[in-house]
Design a protein that fits this description.
heterodimer; A: 7 helices; B: alpha/beta; 8-stranded mixed β-sheet; 5-stranded mixed β-sheet
Chain lengths: 141, 436
């Protein structure tokens, strides 16, 4: 289990995306897809409000993955002035691309995976660019 | 005890720290000022580049208290970003008379970014003249109505756009309640955000009966539609950025898009825009982001000059913006009193000149002549500071187009009060010659 202070969602997001692109370049698409999903998850969680570091890891969203949190993006709004929030959300128009992503894909035969890797990559890239903006704004939590 | 550093001083200290270490605008060092005003550096190089000098600046940023950042977090490098090239894209050159050198800065703001987001060059369609004032109640809407009427009498097709969304009044002045269009600008903005703008854009415009007796036409884009009952709920959502194919579409871009589409749809000869008053985001978009020319309404009051000075000082710090906007401005002296006109006119002119000369004009040495410098004499009538005047006339304080239609207001009265203004405004939109 991670300790509460060891979690850095922003750094994890960029690391997962970078590794995903390396895997994809090598044709290792199933695990690349998994990492695109984790990158997006970490990027979104970077902007979500948590009452404490403990809740950040152990709270109701702590163990949820991207396909489970895309319907809870409105929570981002509770943390910030709404116009900033609207700007951030406008930067990730394709986040619903992860509707068919799942952590259980790691058990799948490759031929049974959805052919969604480019869509997941595009959506994860949008999240990372949003994270850059939030980093400059010092809005990442 | 360490003295507290306030917002207004923090950036000066950071610039001074860079200058003392010998950094200049050509170095890969950018100041990041975040949405709270806290300062960090972005160094577009490896983390060991000029490390001793960077570390000394890092320490000084740590000393800025609430507007600083702890030394260990005070410097960001490309590795801290997904796409560091975008930080570079957002950086602008900023200067201040108090600084020894300009700096590159990314100045992240919650609102107000549009004061620094100008259209570059004239718009492609018909000329766009924006009516702006720091305060309401100076007769902007009436001046716009009478200019539109004058142009319609010449056979022009005039499009009036009410973008004073927080205090909409133009459509009420120009359109009887029963003639309001089905929808208004706020409807377009909320519908466009969900891809339904096309359905309403033809239904946000109505013809003003003010032009009925003329050979031209006055079309009015209303802030709201007929039977409006949820205006605030729409207004509170209207300013949002929306997703686009190539990234977010800003509110400013959306309004530019609206005007572009209206220009094609309505084919006007001139577009007149009623801006929101004051130093507000919507005013920023209207003046900086939409206008070919901006009429700056003012009365000779300390509040007016203080407000314009604050705005101009903001532009003064950003050379690129300054050069883009300053030759589009024209002062309007509104409510020019009947009594003691010579002295009052001189006072207004002196105050306007002082504000422009201190902030927007380039200074040249006495006796020198630089034809390329953006510099004007106080008495140069073509200069941005030299005002178009609108005389005070009690008959226009409760102006209604019905007064024109009924003959209760005459052409001579309009010309006596608004003639100079109309002539000057016509010149700004490229029309010359005698008034019709």
């Amino acid at each position: 289990m991670p300790t509460h202070t060891s979690v850095s969602y922003p750094k994890a997001a960029l690391r997962h995306f970078e590794d995903a692109t390396l895997l994809e370049a090598q044709g290792r698409n199933p695990n690349a897809g998994q990492l695109y999903g984790f990158a997006a998850e970490c990027g979104i969680k970077s902007l979500m409000p948590f009452n404490s570091q403990k809740e950040r890891v152990d709270g109701p969203l702590g163990n949820k993955h991207i396909h489970q949190i895309i319907n809870q993006l409105s929570q981002v709004q509770t943390a910030y002035q709404s116009r900033s929030c609207a700007h951030y959300l406008s930067m990730i128009p394709n986040i619903n691309n992860f509707h068919d992503w799942d952590t259980t894909h790691r058990y799948f035969d490759e031929s049974c995976l959805p052919p969604s890797l480019p869509c997941w990559r595009d959506a994860a890239k949008e999240v990372c660019l949003m994270l850059d903006q939030a980093t400059q704004d010092r809005m990442v939590l | 005890m360490t003295p507290i550093v306030h917002f207004q001083d923090a950036l000066d200290y950071a610039v001074q720290a860079l200058v003392e270490e010998g950094f200049c605008q050509e170095d890969p060092v950018i100041i990041l000022r975040d949405t709270k005003g806290c300062i960090r550096l972005f160094v577009n190089a490896d983390s060991d580049w000029e490390k001793p000098r960077i570390d000394r600046v890092r320490t000084k940023i740590g000393e800025l208290g609430g507007f600083g950042t702890s030394p260990e977090q005070a410097v960001l490098y490309p590795k801290d970003f997904f796409d560091p090239s975008r930080v570079l894209q957002d950086a602008v050159l900023m200067q201040d008379p108090a600084w020894a050198s300009p700096v590159q800065i990314v100045d992240r703001q919650i609102i107000g970014q549009d004061w620094l987001n100008p259209i570059m060059g004239p718009s492609a369609g018909p000329p766009r003249l924006v009516f702006f004032g720091l305060k309401g109640g100076v007769g902007r809407s009436t001046a716009m109505a009478l200019l539109a009427f004058s142009l319609a009498r010449e056979g022009r097709r005039v499009l009036l756009v009410d973008l004073d969304l927080e205090s909409p009044g133009l459509s009420g002045l120009m359109l009887p309640p029963d003639d309001l269009p089905d929808f208004g600008v706020v409807d377009y903005l909320v519908e466009d955000a969900v891809g339904q703008g096309d359905d309403v854009i033809r239904r946000i415009v109505a013809a003003s009966p003010m032009a009925t007796q003329t050979t031209g036409e006055i079309r009015v884009v209303s802030a709201m539609g007929i039977g409006e009952r949820d205006y605030l709920a729409k207004l509170s959502r209207a300013y949002a950025d929306v997703p686009g194919v190539e990234g977010p579409i800003s509110f400013a871009s959306r309004l530019r898009g609206l005007l572009d589409r209206l220009a094609i749809q309505e084919r006007p000869d001139v577009i007149l825009v009623d801006s929101r008053a004051g130093l507000h985001d919507l005013a920023a978009v209207c003046t900086v982001g939409l206008a070919d020319n901006v009429l700056l309404f003012a009365t000779d009051s300390p509040q007016s000059w203080q407000g314009y000075r604050l705005l101009f000082q903001h532009w003064q710090r950003h050379p690129r913006i300054l050069k883009s906007i300053r030759d589009r401005l024209k002062m309007v002296q509104a409510l020019f009193p009947e009594a003691d006109q010579a002295a009052r006119s001189a006072n207004f002119l002196q105050n306007a000149y002082s504000v422009f000369a201190d902030t927007l004009y380039e200074s040249i040495l006495p006796g020198e002549e630089d034809l390329d410098a953006f510099h004007f004499s106080k008495t140069d009538e073509a200069a941005p500071h030299y005002p178009l005047r609108i005389n005070w006339d009690n008959r226009f304080q409760e102006f209604s187009p019905l007064l024109l239609a009924s003959g209760a207001m005459t052409e001579d009265q309009i010309l006596a009060t608004y003639g100079a203004f109309i002539k000057g405004a016509r010149g700004l939109v490229g029309l010359t010659g005698e008034l019709a």
